[in-house]
Amino acid sequence: MEAVITCLAQGHDRKLLIAAGLICIVGIYAASALSGHAGRSDGSARRNWASVSIVAAGCTAWATHMVAVLAYRPGMPAAFDLPLTALSLLAVIAGIGFSMSRMIGRQDRWRRFASGLLLGLSITVLHYLGQYGYRVTGTMSWDLPLVAGSIGTSLLIFGAAMVVAVDRRRAVRRLAPPLLFVAIAVLHVGGMTAMTLSYDPSIGLPDFAVAAEVIAPIVAGVCSALVVLAFFGLRFSLQAQAQLRRDRTRLRELSNLALEGLVVCEGEIVSIVNDSFTRLTGVAAEDVIGRPVTEIIPIDAPFEMTEREEYDMELARACGTPVPVRVLRGEVKVGRKNQTVFAFRDQRERLKSEEIIRAREADLRKAKVAAEEGTRAKSLFLASVSHELRTPLHGIMGTIDLLRDTELGEGQRGYVDTMAQSSDGLLSLVNMLLDFTRLEEGKVTLNNEPFDLAGTVRSVVDLLKPLARAKEIGLDFELDGCPDGQVVGDAGRFRQVLTNILGNAVKFTDAGSVSLRLSWTDGQCRIDVEDTGVGISRDRLAAIFEPFTQENAETTRRFGGTGLGLSISRMLSQQMGGDIRVLSVVGEGSTFSLVLPFPRAVAARALIGSTGPEPLPDLSGFDILVVDDNKVNRFLAERYLASVNARIRQAEDGIEAVASAEENLPDAILMDISMPRMNGLDATREIRLRERGQGRCVIIGLSANAYEEDQKRCLEAGMDGFLAKPVSRAKLIEVLSKALSVDPNSGTDAADTHTRIAARAG
């Protein structure tokens, strides 16, 4: 930037530099006016005015450059190469002529931009031919990066100028001449700054070079001709425009008498629109005049319509809502020109009743399609979210399971238990996404088994105590009414509902306390969760059980959440035969009451949380192939199976699994479903085809997709079972033992597992 300022301030005659700028501005506006008039003309007049505008533009660029060069102070004797100087003028006129021939009448932005690049290249050729023709008694060198930068920048500005020149907005169109001026200035200043002259008295001026005193009158003559050309061109243009305005005024006055919207075109360009058309569309006349009629009539060839032919279409309006019209085409003579007239007859009244019926039918169809697409999209989204979250959860929960078999201190075991509870809670959140869809579709089934009611409630309270402590609020619970022994119900769903209700109470309470009271009478369990939180307004009490609903927008921003928890909790509690009710006062707190039928279990043999390790079966002698593209999943499966003495092989995808099974058919395969190259379903089918005559191995599918449809596809592919991740060690070995017909009491104690795992890993 410093070099540019120095070049302008010290290397140029300021008066001549200002003169060059004025010549550029006047010439650009004159050439633009002549070019615009050429675009509005037809036949020979169009060609003549285009030629005049091309010569004016070329002379403008050449004169601007020459005056700017004359303003340059080289600090040594200098002259001009007359042949090259003349060639630069001819080159720029030819280049501008070619580029403008690609622009007149074209509205496509990319074509206009490309034409602008051609225009810029033409002026670039002029500039550097002129600079090369500038001879000095010395050497000339260039800063090539600066040259390239100035050329590239100016070309982009030339292209932008040609694009904005046809913009719909008049204010934007007026930016084109200033942009052209800036582009020419950038090109000249960049080139002159990039040029370095070194005085060398041994290098003389060529014989054919002429001094500045000789070239200056030529430049002055061109500038004078340019001014005269601009003056007469504008004068003729103004005269023609005045006559055209008179003709258009008469035609417009006549057209305004018509009730239909009328559009008159000169060639393909709109010249007149009447008041009825502007009322019909809400578009101002000046925003339509001068634009191609094809932008108004959205048909391929409106001029191929025969006279009096009618065509029904929807006409765009400024407000965005199209209006149905019937288009008629005719011819009218204005002066010596035949012009095309399009009449737009409003069809709204005639089509009003039909539109209402069509709109209702369309709304029904759209609603049906939207509902179907929404259901499909939601299912795909939930399946994807479930898969992506279950895969790392499988690794976390499996590692926790293995960690429990190591020698842990009391504090460490507490940490592991907390990790397990947290991962269980996260898994519950993942399951919540699937539950909402399943509940809506009525596909949720309950798993009613004996469970420890008090232990389950305590585990939920323990899970939320750290959050309560962090917020410095109390979390109390009373289980005095809890029955002895076990009750029958779906423990997982109950834990899910209670975690949501109690978790909400803690989350929405900033001061005070949260209390839980449990009572049980004749098989009916009632849990009251009372808090001193923000409370819920009376008019929102019923709505909070609606999906994706919270108290208000401020609550959502402050506390977060999806608004699904209470909706799912109520649907689950109702499916379990109970319900959830709420009482609340804004600013004082809320009380949620959960009532569920939990009858006492008969002869329950074991309580949840009973001490002592479960015996694991002995799978020694069994050859098991683990197939999974996830390294963590293969690691967990290997450790699980090592604890029961199985022989283990591994494969990273379906192709490796097929090859390994063909080489030596294993007793069982743990097959992941989603894998690269070949998925688990295709691998299972291939193994079933190749194992004929060799016996049949057990194949258990493992997948982070937990839909029943996934299990069905696995069984149809030839698998013997299916497990949804995350899978605990006990569950995996239980399913595998049953499939291999192994006595679950035949084996080893889980307490010895760590030693065997360490030995195999070493």
UniProtKB/TrEMBL annotation:
Pfam families: HATPase_c, HisKA, MHYT, PAS_9, Response_reg. Its EC number is 2.7.13.3. It comes from the Bacteria. Residues 623-740 form the Response regulatory domain. Residues 384-600 form the Histidine kinase domain. The keyword Cytoplasm does not apply. Keywords: Kinase, Membrane, Phosphoprotein, Transferase, Transmembrane, Transmembrane helix, Two-component regulatory system. One of its GO terms (cellular component) is membrane. Residues 12-198 form the MHYT domain. Signal peptide: none annotated. The chain crosses the membrane at residues 16-37, 49-72, 84-101, 113-134, 146-166, 178-199, 214-238. The modification 4-aspartylphosphate is found at residue 672. This is histidine kinase.
